[in-house]
Write a structure and sequence with these properties.
The structure is a single chain. This protein is mainly alpha-helical and 193 residues long. The protein contains eight helices and no strands.
Length: 193
């Protein structure tokens, strides 16, 4: 318990708490503003699209490989890391293809028209991009480099919030979310890799 409150552990804990507070404040503030600027129709459509495209895959995207890499005793070999990265990419692409094939039926079921196919397809691709950060993120967490993780995730939130709020203020509809998520996910994947 004493080591938890001194040295590296306390700095890491503080970094994680600060990250969480920053992300929560940005999220709450932007959600209120964006909802007022875009209106319930666009916000509701985005919520449905995000559930259809990323809800299931978000839970099963790495099948626990990230946690396994973090918890594995001893050093990680390059082949283990490469295999984990390949498996995560394969799982992400497989789920995205399956969800993409079911997309027309799912959108009809929730009464969203064909104008939603392109944003939904882009959201599927973005989930593949976002999942490519899992192995590098696991390595950072394993090395207890939480300040780096916190800084990148806070910057991701800032990029997302700033773009979303700006584009919502300009009334760009569903594309506000797609563009903001795209920039956030590309930034995060590049920063972690």
């Amino acid at each position: 318990l004493q080591t938890l409150f001194r040295g590296q552990m306390s700095g890491a804990a503080i970094a994680l708490v600060i990250r969480q507070v920053v992300i929560m404040a940005l999220s709450v503030g932007s959600s209120v503003a964006v909802s007022r600027w875009l209106g319930p129709e666009v916000v509701g459509r985005f919520a449905i699209l995000i559930f259809i495209t990323q809800g299931i895959l978000g839970y099963f995207g790495d099948l626990g490989l990230k946690a396994a890499l973090i918890r594995k005793p001893g050093d990680l070999e390059a082949t283990e890391l490469a295999t984990a990265q390949t498996v995560i990419l394969g799982i992400s692409i497989t789920f995205a293809v399956i969800i993409g094939a079911l997309l027309p039926g799912a959108l009809r079921l929730v009464k969203l028209g064909p104008e939603n196919y392109l944003p939904a397809a882009i959201l599927l691709v973005l989930l593949i991009v976002r999942n490519q950060r899992m192995v590098p993120l696991a390595l950072l967490e394993r090395a207890m480099r939480f300040r780096v993780v916190s800084a990148v995730e806070a910057a991701e939130s800032l990029v997302y919030t700033a773009l979303l709020a700006t584009l919502a203020f300009l009334h760009k509809g569903i594309w506000c979310y797609v563009i903001a998520m795209g920039c956030r996910d590309l930034f995060g994947s590049l920063a972690f890799n």
